[in-house]
């Protein structure tokens, strides 16, 4: 038996854990968590290498893989936590606060709504996965991870012990696992990492899968310029932020123009540039 990189579903909510919806170490009050009961969450389970009977959700012949096992349809969300956190800091030119971090409850609601009526014939299962690097001293990240699980997200956590430790391949591996165990219908990837995702995601579109990239338009040129990928600015997801971000979007400029502030001091940049050139 080969298990996928996410568990069967979220655990029962712990009464002493304060749920958080924002995309980073928590501070402040949290909204009530959305319903993540197994009956409505339709979260996927382990992937079995041996054939396993599946219900025919399409009312006809089930979709099968080479071993004869049927594959239920699936809408999958992948969240690249290091990339979203880094690009958010770049876009607003500051360390994100609770008010400027994405709201995972609203994003879950938007994603599940896009999957359609769960009682309709052929309804897709839904799975949302957050991939994160965890430093040796996680601190308040433990509460953040538990809050994500309470909102119905699976979390893949990899220790960050070296600068080049990354989760890129883990995300691609999980997409491949789900493409094997299910019939991927819609893949929503929250990441501005074109180096990692551009080619694999376009290949999935060529295979007939709807692929939506959600990121900040300032850093998602690979998706915006693609003829195959759909792109949504993360700030356009309804309710994703408590208040508008302090940013100027080139795709939404006011008629009389706008100033875009530098994201770092000119002197700091020149000092770093001079040090690199001298080295």
UniProtKB/TrEMBL annotation:
It holds the Pfam family NYN. Gene3D superfamilies: 5'-nuclease (3.40.50.1010). Residues 1-71 are annotated as: Disordered. Residues 78-218 form the NYN domain. GO terms for molecular function: RNA nuclease activity. Transmembrane segments: none annotated. InterPro entries: NYN. This is NYN domain-containing protein. It comes from Blastococcus saxobsidens. The lineage of its organism: Bacteria, Bacillati, Actinomycetota, Actinomycetes, Geodermatophilales.
């Amino acid at each position: 038996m080969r298990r996928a990189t996410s568990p069967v579903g979220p655990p029962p909510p712990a009464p002493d854990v304060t749920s958080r919806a924002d995309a980073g170490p928590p501070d402040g009050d949290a909204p009530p968590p959305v319903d993540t009961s197994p009956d409505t969450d339709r979260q996927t389970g382990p992937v079995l290498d041996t054939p396993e009977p599946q219900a025919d959700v399409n009312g006809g012949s089930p979709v099968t893989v080479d071993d004869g096992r049927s594959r239920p349809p699936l809408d999958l969300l992948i969240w690249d936590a290091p990339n979203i956190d880094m690009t958010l800091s770049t876009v607003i030119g500051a360390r994100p606060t609770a008010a400027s971090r994405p709201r995972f409850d609203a994003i879950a609601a938007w994603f599940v709504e896009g999957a359609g009526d769960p009682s309709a014939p052929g309804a897709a299962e839904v799975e949302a996965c957050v991939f994160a690097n965890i430093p040796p001293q996680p601190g308040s990240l433990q509460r953040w991870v538990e809050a994500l699980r309470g909102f119905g997200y699976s979390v893949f956590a990899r220790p960050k012990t070296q600068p080049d430790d990354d989760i890129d391949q883990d995300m691609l591996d999980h997409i491949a696992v789900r493409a094997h165990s299910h019939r991927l219908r819609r893949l929503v990837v929250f990441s501005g990492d074109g180096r990692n995702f551009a080619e694999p995601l376009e290949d999935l579109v060529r295979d007939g899968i709807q692929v939506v990239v959600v990121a900040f338009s300032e850093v998602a040129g690979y998706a915006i310029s693609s003829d195959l990928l759909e792109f949504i600015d993360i700030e356009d997801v309804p309710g994703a932020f408590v208040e508008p971000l302090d940013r100027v979007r080139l795709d939404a400029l006011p008629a009389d123009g706008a100033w875009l502030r530098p994201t770092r001091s000119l002197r700091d940049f020149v000092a770093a540039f001079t040090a690199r050139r001298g080295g």
